[in-house]
From TrEMBL:
GO MF terms, alphabetically ordered: lyase activity
Transmembrane annotation, as ranges: 12-31
Native species: Candidatus Zambryskibacteria bacterium RIFCSPHIGHO2_01_FULL_49_18
Gene3D superfamilies: Endolytic murein transglycosylase
Protein name: Endolytic murein transglycosylase
Length: 297
C-alpha cells in the first residue's frame, strides 16, 4: 500500500472513531431524562393513546428527550399494543426504558386502595365507598354518570387519584370482560342483554343462594310470560305495573346473571322469604297465603 493510501486509511479510521464517540454520546443523551424532567408530578396516559401519540405527548411534557427512542424501548418490551392507561406518578427522573416498562405493566407509582363492591350494591352505595382517601373522586358526577347494573361487583385496587370517570370505566370494562364469555348464551336465549341484567338485579335482591336464585328466576320469567305483575319486594313498583322495571335496580353478580339465563324449571308461581331466612314456594295463591301465615309472623 502506498503512503497516500495509508494516510487516507488512517484518516478514515480516525473519522470513524470520533463519529462513533459522537453517536454514543448522542445516543446516551437521548436515553437520559431531560434536565427539566417534571419530578414530583402526575402524568396522565389517556385510554386509547397510540404509541406515536403517547411518545409525542411525553416529549411535550419533558418526560423523555426522544420520542423515537421511547417507541423503540416500548417495542422491545412488547408493550406497543398493551399500554396501561392511567395516572403515573414520577417522583424523580427516569430513563425512557424505565418509563416504557412502567406503562407496559401499569406501574403507576401511586398508592392503591382496596375497594370491595359486593353483589347487589347500587351506584349510590358504590359511590359511598369512595370517601376521603380519593381526593379527586366526584361522588355526584359518579352517581350521575354510572350505568346502574353494568358496574361489575368485584374487589378492585384503585389508585388514590381515581376519578368518577376513570372508576366508571374500570368497573364497566370489568363488566364487559366478565359478561363476554356468556354473550353467546344471552343471544341464543332470545332475550336482550338489558332484560337479562334487569332480571338479574331483581334476582340479586330477592335470593341469597344459587338454588333459590334459579328458582326465583323461573317464577319471575313465568309471571312475565303470563302478564302477571312481578311483585318483588326489592322493587315495589313491580306491584303496580306489569313487566320489567325500566332499568336494573342494582349491580348484579355473575351468579345472578347466570340464574337469569338458566332458571330451574318448577311448578311454582309464588314464593316468600320466611322469618327464618329460608324461601318457600307455592303453586297457588291460596297455598302462598297459608305459607305466609305460617312462616311470616
Amino acid at each position: 500500500m502506498h503512503m497516500p493510501e495509508i494516510e487516507q486509511a488512517q484518516k478514515i479510521k480516525i473519522f470513524l472513531f470520533f463519529l462513533s464517540i459522537i453517536l454514543v454520546i448522542a445516543g446516551a443523551a437521548t436515553l437520559t431524562p431531560p434536565p427539566d424532567f417534571p419530578s414530583g408530578s402526575i402524568i396522565d396516559v389517556a385510554e386509547g393513546s397510540g404509541l406515536q401519540r403517547l411518545s409525542l405527548e411525553l416529549k411535550k411534557e419533558n418526560v423523555i428527550r426522544s420520542p423515537l427512542w421511547f417507541r423503540v424501548a416500548t417495542i422491545i418490551l412488547g408493550g406497543e399494543r398493551d399500554m396501561k392507561a392511567g395516572q403515573y406518578y414520577f417522583e424523580r427522573p427516569q430513563s425512557p426504558f424505565v418509563i416504557a416498562w412502567r406503562i407496559r405493566w401499569g406501574r403507576y407509582g401511586i398508592e392503591m386502595k382496596k375497594i370491595t363492591v359486593p353483589e347487589g350494591f347500587t351506584v349510590q352505595k358504590i359511590s359511598a365507598l369512595f370517601g376521603g382517601n380519593f381526593p379527586f373522586f366526584d361522588n355526584a358526577m359518579f352517581e350521575r354518570a354510572a350505568p346502574e347494573g353494568y358496574l361489575f361487583p368485584d374487589t378492585y385496587f384503585m389508585p388514590i387519584t381515581a376519578t368518577a370517570t376513570s372508576t366508571v370505566k374500570t368497573m364497566r370494562d370489568n363488566f364487559i370482560r366478565k359478561i363476554f364469555p356468556i354473550m353467546p348464551e344471552i343471544e341464543d336465549s332470545g332475550k336482550s342483554l338489558e332484560d337479562v341484567i334487569i332480571m338479574a338485579s331483581l334476582i340479586e335482591g330477592e335470593a341469597n343462594n344459587q338454588t333459590d336464585r334459579e328458582m326465583v328466576s323461573d317464577v319471575l320469567w313465568k309471571r312475565l310470560k303470563i302478564g302477571m305483575p312481578l311483585q318483588v319486594d326489592v322493587e315495589m313498583k313491580t306491584y303496580e305495573f306489569q313487566g320489567l322495571p325500566e332499568k336494573p335496580i342494582n349491580n348484579p353478580g355473575l351468579d345472578s346473571i347466570r340464574a337469569a339465563l338458566r332458571p330451574t324449571s318448577t311448578p311454582y308461581l309464588y314464593y316468600l322469604t320466611g322469618n327464618d331466612g329460608k324461601m318457600y314456594y307455592s303453586k297457588t295463591f291460596d297455598e302462598h297465603v297459608a305459607k305466609k301465615q305460617k312462616y311470616i309472623r
